[in-house]
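quick one
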Amino acid sequence: MDALEQFRLQTREWLEANCPESMRGPVPSMDEHYWGGRNVAFKSEDQKAWFESMRDKNWIAPSWPEKYGGAGLSTAEVAVLKEEMKSIEARPAHINLGIWMACPAIMEFGSEEQKLKYLPMTARGEIRWCQGYSEPGAGSDLAGLQTKAVRDGDDFIINGSKIWTSYADESDYIYCLVRTNQDAPKREGITFLVFDMASEGVSTQTIELTNGDSHFCQTFFDNVRVPVANVIGEIDKGWTVAKRVLELERAMMSDIEESAARHEDSPSKLAKEYIGLDGEGKIADRILRDRIAQNAMNTEAFDATMARVYEEFAASDPLAGMAMMIAKYQGTEEDKRKYQLIMDILGNKSLGWEGEQFSDGELRMSKQHFLTYAHTIAGGTSEVQLNIIAKRVLGLPD
Ligand SMILES: Cc1cc2nc3c(=O)[nH]c(=O)nc-3n(C[C@H](O)[C@H](O)[C@H](O)COP(=O)(O)OP(=O)(O)OC[C@H]3O[C@@H](n4cnc5c(N)ncnc54)[C@H](O)[C@@H]3O)c2cc1C
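structure w/ flavin-adenine dinucleotide:
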């Protein structure tokens, strides 16, 4: 038996012994995940046990080197771990923007001292991260950001505001883009900084959404003092780090949803239940049947492509970043079409918001339908993705 096969068997055995039954199966909502950090409580004893087992095994960030809190697993071993977790539908033990974005950026662009400071505490789930990119006047045109950082000895003094900062009010650290040079061309005067959200002068205000949720914040910086030592990469060269993080964000968006309950939402299964079958045993509505088949084919093709892209990404193939841009556009748009299809299948049971006439599943799918629109905006809107694909992937002229 080769070493990888041995690793698979040991992993399977370990997961079987350590992943509680209630931590298997789709996660009903993002709030049910364990996000870690200073302020977050576990939802159950099983969730705590599952997180602690994974943390103690250094499998929260399994590919990171051991000195940074990881387990030093190879790409092939990480793939095996993922496959084995998937086969028992194990939920992620911990979700954190730090694992997907901030720390990989620190690993690539940070100093050894920064790696030793931030990575282990993130891998142990002690700090939760948020992303300070978008501003009221800078979303798609991110490089137009105006949050200012002015040098004062060994510190920067930060003033300005970020918007749509997901979970800023519950996070411990922020990775943030600030303008450090007013005179340079706009992409050349930006710096990538990390700092503690408990710093004096940081405040957040939640933004209530139409469905009553408020995971978004506007984040304000009022003379926040941040050591220059917190710059990741070089001063004024943060755009390079920022772009890498955006690639990682697009990868994360497909990853984070992998375990979501929405994978249970199968248009063909739902059509059998809500539309019924004709005399030949086919879904009784010909047009819906055609859309269901199209969705199934697109999903299969997308999953197969993503499996390839992940391997290329892990091997730092430069083409993988480009493929990820296409994947983000295609994945989120297909997901939106899937839920439009599901709404049509549900008929008069679709678009329910509350009330006993709707089942829990129908209410959840209606909310998911609206969320799919948000996913075509977060991490770069579809229109902007198409511009990027046209210019940077296909090389078309401006
Ligand atoms: C669920 C969710 C979570 C988010 N979390 C965070 C977070 O944690 N941190 C953070 O910093 N930000 C976050 N964002 C913000 C997100 O990055 C921005 O919403 C996004 O980049 C778009 O910016 P904007 O909202 O300012 O829209 P705008 O840039 O004002 O765009 C408005 C419309 O104009 C279109 N448009 C703009 N420019 C062009 C162009 N050149 N060509 C064609 N069409 C164009 C856009 O496609 C869009 O339809 C989140 C957003 C969502 C939806």
